[in-house]
Amino acid sequence: MQTSPDRHEYPAHWEADVVLRDGGTARIRPITVDDADRLVSFYEQVSDESKYYRFFAPYPRLSAKDVHRFTHHDFVDRVGLAATVGGEFIATVRYDRIGADGTPASAPADEAEVAFLVQDAHQGRGVASALLEHIAAVARERGIRRFAAEVLPANTKMIKVFTDAGYTQKRSFEDGVVRLEFDLEPTDRSLAVQYAREHRAEARSVQRLLAPGSVAVIGAGRAPGGVGRSVLGNIRDAGFTGRLYAVNKALPEEQKELDGVPAHRSVRDIDGPVDLAVVAVPAEHVPEVVTECGEHGVQGLVVVSAGYAESGPDGRERQRALVRHARTYGMRIIGPNAFGIINTSPQVRLNASLAPETPRPGRIGLFAQSGAIGIALLSRLHRRGGGVTGVTGVSTFVSSGNRADVSGNDVLQYWYEDPDTDVVLMYLESIGNPRKFTRLARRTAAAKPLVVVQGARHGAAPQGHAVRATRLPHATVSALLRQAGVIRVDTITELVDAGLLLARQPLPAGPRVAILGNSESLGLLTYDACLAEGLRPHPPQDLTTAASAADFHTALSRALADDRCDAVVVTAIPAVGEGSVADAALAEALRSAAAAAPAKPVLVVHVELGGLAEALSAAASTAPQVDAGEPAPTAPGPAPTEERPRGEERPYGEERPPTAEAPPGEERAPAEERSPTAERPPTAETPEGAHLIPAYPAAERAVRALAQAVTYAQWRRDAADPGKVPEYEDIDEKGAAALIDGLLARGQGLTLGTEETCDLLGHYGIHVHRALPAPTADAAAEAARTLGYPVALKATAPHLRHRADLGGVRLDLADEDQLRRSYAELTDLFGSPDELRPVVQRMAPRGVDVVVRAVIDPAAGAVLSFGLAGAASQLLGDTAHRLIPVTDREAASLVRSIRTAPLLFGWRGSAPADTRALEELLLRVSRLVDDHPEVVAVTLEPVVVASHGLSVLGASVRLAPPPARDDLGPRTLPAY
């Protein structure tokens, strides 16, 4: 709650951009005294019926007193918010704090009356729901815990806004008015409602971009070549099903067409709506284009123009201005510096990108933040998807460039319910909101595979990306992604390998793998690769080089029928003198055997079998039939560069062409990866329900893809029963909250002392062994008598703390003589007691030393970490992580996921540790941090886990005021 000196300061952090139900955007901000004219104009556009519902009587116009009242707020007891588009109000909401008698009041009164008014033209867009989320967050921040609203019974739309919000509420009816009262504390239902609305809105906003009814290319050059002209040609050549327009301010007034496309000098001149504009003009001219698009009602922009954040500080500010400008008109942006978007659906056929060829239609959704990597991925899918492994293509492709607005999170929202997408592949160089990404990824991965490769893993994000800093190392972020069901790979080659398998084959039921083929050596390589990836291979079955197609069919059928087998890897090398007929027979033999047992995945490892690759493709192809002699499509690549005499100026409306640089590390594909269908496309249709068989040029690549599918399948099975967050009767949440409030009253952030730490942890049933200071030998002896022998003597100076290997700890001291001798040894070795800071602690039962930590990361949220104490965690990085709150199943998996976990389970004959007690400790720490966002860091080190029970020997806690908005707050777009 603000104090009186700053009651009237403008709360800029309440400003937010939101995505509405129809996919458009609006800006929500506080109403100020400068908004009088806007308020009057807004009210004049509201129907008489809506005014009647708001004021319960005819109210044709606002009086001067009304305008003053509705624009003068103290931002504490009286608050008004407006939703704006194009700078004009489209809806308002306000609350007034009231006391128990219903009259205006100030704190500590915690109830307020709330009322909405939405312009009729914008009703049904979800504006009121978004405003309710934001005004509720503002009210909670100002100490208001409950809203009351009076609504006429006929105003069913507004009643539905309140009742659908998911808050705990009461309803009464008196004097012809419905009175609704509801608590503002978020509930599971209110959060579910909020996330569902967020999903629908963001998915719809992406759908509007990917499936427009009309497209204008702004900056289509007068001469062939150039970015705009290339994109225009790509859209036209792809057979876009909607209306297409070319726009260039430099066109002569008499020119009405460009490459057979209707041409205009301005988007304003187009007669009819424009859903999507592709902007390919120099950056300095983009603001003018955005204004024209906004005023014409364009719904979204793909900005391929460069010269933004990737070019430095000036470009970063230009990018911020671009996003703010577009959102003013309710438009969303892909880019700037974007490669473009593709939708292969027969109902759309949109190639608004720099790829001169549209990829084959298929079931893979592809997202790339880098244009160069986007080119590489499209090319690899083209080669692999149409040749070695049969036809698999792309449903939709988005290359976001600097991803100033539309990000991977938005596209995930779309793909989650997209019926045309079965597998999602993403290349990410930065994750702007890891907390949201993991939430969306978990939901998506439960329905369809999500494969991610991260670039810039060992350095800063690309200059063009505005992302929140994270203190977590990349390994931790990767672990959290895997926890959310993401299939993490390291290269784009692995991305394609995994994607093709997941798009074509069923998920394996387990790790048991049968290996068969006509090469003993290749089979042994596959066997070793399976062991290296943690799979359980059967001994390879060598069919010998004399094996026929029938032999392969029989062996594969037998392996698939074996209940001890979950997947089959077929290895094949060419036989001397074998021709295309034999290749086709082998491919048909494998396909028919696999089709008879469709529940198990089959992979092929081939060596220079071009004929087999083509035959596998022809055996089960979904490619359209191509007449003989028709030229084959070329792999997607960069648009041709433009040639222009040196020194000649580019007219406004034309953008500089892109450079055709190959992405780092990319070279021409080896022969075994090139699609034989580049010469002769496949023509057969896929039988109903048939699975395409993926083939790989190396055993290691096939097995790695299979291992990733096995891990993902196990995650899917586990995700079906995620467990629960247990309740513990001895947890005193209110007592802990009171203690935290009292401690934070001392300052903005602090590390608690020993007694305060023990007290706070004690409220959650976590008991820390007392450690008494020992500034002298006599004080050490007195402490030991208080605690009881045997005791431990420890140096707690920062350079010696938790470093038993340096000799700063003496254990099992049975009497005072041993204690005094040890005290003298420590001071002789390491210095005075003031330097050592020695403490005495009662000995705990022997066991395995572990470390438990929880931290609030500004980007990822609350993270729980676990590992063994000492070198295992610090040197080897053997630490596991989970997002808070942690369920009982997640706590159990956390304990078992570190490499040194066998030490807890009786390794080499030692007594097993009490892992149940350890899991309960993890759950209690998780509950503490989840219940109290003020707890920003907890460390328990060491924790000795004995055969029965455990002992927490050291603990530290750090507190800080919680952020004004957290992940439970209202929906917002990233701020610019």
Low-confidence stretches: 1-6, 386-390, 619-689
Number of continuous helical runs:
27
Kindly name the structural category. alpha/beta
Strand residue content: 15-25%
Gap between N and C termini = 26 Å
What is the average of the pLDDT values? 85
> What's the β-strand tally?
39
Percent helix among the residues?
25-40%
Quick one: biggest sheet? 8 strands, mixed
Rg, Cα atoms, Å:
33 Å
Provide key terms for this protein.
single chain; 976 residues; alpha/beta; eight-stranded mixed beta sheet; seven-stranded mixed beta sheet; 27 helices; 33% helix; 21% strand; disordered N terminus
In words, what does this structure look like?
β37 and β38 form a beta hairpin. The protein has 976 residues and is α/β, with parallel strands linked by helices. The strands form six sheets. It has an eight-stranded mixed β-sheet, with helices on both faces. It is flat, with a radius of gyration of 33 Å. The N terminus is likely disordered. The chain contains 27 helices and 39 strands.
